Amino acid sequence: MRKHLLLAVVLFLLCSLNNIIAQEKVSEVVSDEYNRSSISVVYVSRGDVYDSQLKEYIKKNFMNSDKVTKFDINFIKTNEINVNVPRNTQLTLNQISSNTEVQSIGKEILSYWFNRKDNGEMDATIVEKRGRYNVTDQDYFNAQVAKVGLSALKDGGYKLVGNSYVLFLDYSNVEKKVDDKGKVSWTSQANVYVYKLNYTDEVYNSVMNSWIYAEDTDAVKQQKNDIWNNMNVGLNFVASGDYSTSKSESDGGLETSAIESYQSAIHVLENKIDTWSVASAITHVKPLRAKIGKKEGVKNTTRYRAYIYTEDENGKLKSVPKGYVRATKVADNRVNASGKTPESEFYQISGFGISEGAILKQKNDWALGGGLSYRMGSFDGYYLNLDKLVSIKTNGISQYALVNIGFNIISESKLKDNNLYTSTSSGVNFINASIGYGIGIRPFIRYFEFMPFVLVGIDGINVNGEEDDSDDSSFSEKTAYTGSLGLKFNMNIAYPLQLFGSVDYSALLFQGDIYKLRNETLDDLGRKNGVGFNIGLKYIF
Amino acid sequence: MNRFLSFLLVLIFSAPIVFSQSRKERKALFESMQNFEITTVKVGTEGTKFVKVWGYGKKVDDAIVQAKKNAVYACIFRGLPASSTANATPAICRDANAYKANQDYFDNFFQTAGPYIDFVNMTTDGVPSGQDRLKVKKGYKVAIYVQVMFDNLRKKLEADGIVKGLSSGF
Q: Looking at residue A358, what is its pLDDT?
């Protein structure tokens, strides 16, 4: 009874969490505009042995325009600032903002945008190229019927200068660990502090007034150089994000850890910085399609929320969420738009019918389901069920990686009731851990997903207080290998909260000697091959 | 108790009157040829005007049709407002009573798929989307990008004797 009460409390807490999140109503009107942003990554040097390696990874991966497609890259002279604080200490914003090397970055960004040379001459090559690349099909059609024509499309680049960001990338808690078997792993935490270029009208005018042409006289050049030199271009703090990952040496060690922690921090920041959140209209339904793709950093499983707009009798605009979709087939649209931009495909995973014209707004998640369940039948007990969406197709067929961790206790009194009480035992507990693979199918409606799955794992029986538990018996002697084959279902209650359940056949594939002995001793209370049923609640993170 | 019942009855019987009035207002709102917003997007190519115009309708398609009519209507009777990139354009018909004076002509001109359609091209990419597609009570309010063949429209109205030719005043 106490166990069921515990499960009920946990489920109640999960439901409450969902309610709290659901109450976060969309108070502001969601923007339907998206323009490309540009970034410069500046490494925060802590002055220790890791600096040279980490700087190299940044140069190779985050300042490489072939690898970073969603953002344009502003290459600036200041690619490193020094903050000599031990790496296990978190930086404060003031330590970045007050750094003397930061003061020149704003002007360096403008120099890059306008290709300013040492003699002060500038040109608009980069501005125009980026302006043209940012154009949508609608802009293209508009330009076709305007007197200024298609040549004016590149002028849009001037407004993109204001979307320049500086990412101060700091790594803290860099740690090397060596386990008992000599296996080496690395942990690093990426802390990304995002600042935006303070590109005011005053700055814009100063840039235009300091634009030196080859034909300018020396006096004019001097005057324009003075304007440039006296110009103040600041950076404003926008948001920060951090993420920590560990990687074994065989998986790439520190380099992979540093890259993944940075990418995950960006993943977090995309939800915090609205201009980074891609927005695009649904152009077609069945299947859902929108004119975004690799250019906007779309990847399979990336999540978007669909909105429609309403206007009340007082003319007040409101954005109304209609459900979530995931990108399935990603179009390669990394070309200048000319009215025929290829479309990516999406699959709706929650909500109501989405019609053409609705706006998709990027809402990143980890596509990770975390659930708690109770299992009846064979291998009964309480389970933590994790599933990670690996891929999804336009028809809704998905692939999942599964992890289950189970726990159960047989109390002393229950042992006594079954005549299994010994003076050395104060109860028995079971621990089960398994990994697996599942294929999600939505045959009828998007709210309901079936998932045939297979799991393999290990099962352990621990007798509380028994001396054997701390002896030298090998791990394999005390455990059993298990296998399960079954069918799971996931049903949206109030997405991202789901009800899930499963039915499967689980079997002991191999039993260690000690495990076998304990299991036989427990008789009916022990692990048995057979059918089991799971039911629980899951939250998608 | 009786007083409460009387109040309730009055409330019930008066509700249809109140709501019918608001229905009428809404109907008038949908049907009004003058109740719409229009902005000049950019200077259009030779002889054309490039505008963004709003329309109402029970369905999105109805609202698009209405918006096209509105664009032509604005060019004939209201004129087009200036924008940061384009000057204002005066109406083709300067006479405020021109519609009433030629009621049959314009009723026919603006009937769905009527002659007005020859003077308007929608340049919106696909269907109106995002904040250009608003769900309102009992319908939709949509904005579309439209190219109006302004010079051709003027010539047509001159040829049909609705407006005087530009040269007639000299």
A: 96
Contacts of A314 in chain B (CB under 8 A): none
Query: Is residue B10 situated within a structural domain?
Result: no
Q: By residue range, what is the domain housing residue B73?
A: 23-164
Predicted confidence (pLDDT) per residue in A382-420, tens digit: 999 999 999 999 999 999 999 999 999 887 777 777 776
Q: Which pLDDT value is given to residue A57?
A: 85
Residue A111 in this model has a pLDDT that exceeds 60: yes
pTM: 0.86
pLDDT at A466: 64
Given an 8 Å threshold on Cβ–Cβ distance, is B128 in contact with A309?
no
Q: A316-322 long-range CB contacts below 8 Å, 24 or more apart? A: A317/A29, A317/B131, A317/B134, A318/A26, A318/A29, A319/A26, A319/A28, A319/A29, A319/A30, A319/A359, A320/A26, A320/B135, A321/A26, A321/A351, A322/A351, A322/A352, A322/A353, A322/A354, A322/A358
Per-residue model confidence as pLDDT tens digits over A269-295 = 999 999 999 999 999 999 999 999 999
Q: Is residue B110 assigned to a domain?
A: yes
Q: Among A387, A301, A308, A307, which residue's Cα sits nearest to residue A346? A: A301
Q: Which of A147, A281, A317 sits opposite B44 (nearest CB)?
A: A147
Test A309 with B131 for CB contact under 8 angstroms: yes
B27 in a structural domain: yes
Closest CA to A257 of A364, A169, A171: A171
**Residue B1: inside a domain:** no
Closest Cβ–Cβ partner in A136, A281, A311 for B141:
A311
pLDDT on residue B12 = 46
User: How many domains does chain B fold into?
Assistant: 1
